């Protein structure tokens, strides 16, 4: 195998409960990562040398800072005696800074794709450990299951969610995750809940009140979407979402969105399209 093309699916946080702050600055949390059947596409082509080339480069993100290249470098570092190079082509659909895991998903698809292309034979646990060094959201994409998460998001328990269609909207603003997590008004000590409590309706987002206050465009998007179904913030935003029972209703709502708001419709899935593409079930 010298070439492979892989999906990089989005995720949304069906709820986000921040329960504490660690000494290293990371936040302890609870969340439910819902995987979607919509995302970026990554094409990986093996090279006969050790060069890594990403095209196109993302605006404002130097190639070496991109999580795709950083993920590939991690694998190269484990095997310095091997010839491991690749051309990496990304078709970007997921908005940056949206809270839907675009960069983390790209990194996970890079790890799994190059593991297959370079015949490294690392297992998912090993790849998830590498991914955690790149970001707290990377492991859920590596493991490829909709999951209940704790710790900083790396302690995962697969969970089956009902079939739903989601309208995901991206307001015209960029929310800084670092700014939200460092803000003095962020609620950091919510009481932990059990999965049963979530299923009974415990589905808030500790970041939402602060994000709505600091980013009026997010507040407006939530108010607009809430006309059709309960609307929520995913992660620290800026994306917001609502759940619908069928594709037709979701498409109809998305089609009515204000002109200054991007959006898409996606189906919630319990197994990642990435894993299906690689035959990992």
Automatic annotation (TrEMBL):
<keyword id="KW-0808">Transferase</keyword>
<comment type="pathway">
    <text>Isoprenoid biosynthesis; isopentenyl diphosphate biosynthesis via DXP pathway; isopentenyl diphosphate from 1-deoxy-D-xylulose 5-phosphate: step 3/6.</text>
</comment>
<feature type="active site">
    <location>
        <position position="137"/>
    </location>
</feature>
<keyword id="KW-0067">ATP-binding</keyword>
<keyword id="KW-0418">Kinase</keyword>
<dbReference type="Pfam" id="PF00288">
    <property type="entry name" value="GHMP_kinases_N"/>
</dbReference>
<keyword id="KW-0547">Nucleotide-binding</keyword>
<dbReference type="InterPro" id="IPR020568">
    <property type="entry name" value="Ribosomal_Su5_D2-typ_SF"/>
</dbReference>
<dbReference type="InterPro" id="IPR014721">
    <property type="entry name" value="Ribsml_uS5_D2-typ_fold_subgr"/>
</dbReference>
<dbReference type="Pfam" id="PF08544">
    <property type="entry name" value="GHMP_kinases_C"/>
</dbReference>
<protein>
    <recommendedName>
        <fullName>4-diphosphocytidyl-2-C-methyl-D-erythritol kinase</fullName>
        <ecNumber>2.7.1.148</ecNumber>
    </recommendedName>
</protein>
<dbReference type="InterPro" id="IPR036554">
    <property type="entry name" value="GHMP_kinase_C_sf"/>
</dbReference>
<comment type="function">
    <text>Catalyzes the phosphorylation of the position 2 hydroxy group of 4-diphosphocytidyl-2C-methyl-D-erythritol.</text>
</comment>
<feature type="domain" description="GHMP kinase C-terminal">
    <location>
        <begin position="196"/>
        <end position="254"/>
    </location>
</feature>
<comment type="similarity">
    <text>Belongs to the GHMP kinase family. IspE subfamily.</text>
</comment>
<keyword id="KW-0414">Isoprene biosynthesis</keyword>
<feature type="binding site">
    <location>
        <begin position="95"/>
        <end position="105"/>
    </location>
    <ligand>
        <name>ATP</name>
    </ligand>
</feature>
<dbReference type="GO" id="GO:0016301">
    <property type="term" value="F:kinase activity"/>
</dbReference>
<dbReference type="InterPro" id="IPR013750">
    <property type="entry name" value="GHMP_kinase_C_dom"/>
</dbReference>
<dbReference type="InterPro" id="IPR004424">
    <property type="entry name" value="IspE"/>
</dbReference>
<feature type="domain" description="GHMP kinase N-terminal">
    <location>
        <begin position="66"/>
        <end position="145"/>
    </location>
</feature>
<feature type="active site">
    <location>
        <position position="11"/>
    </location>
</feature>
<dbReference type="InterPro" id="IPR006204">
    <property type="entry name" value="GHMP_kinase_N_dom"/>
</dbReference>
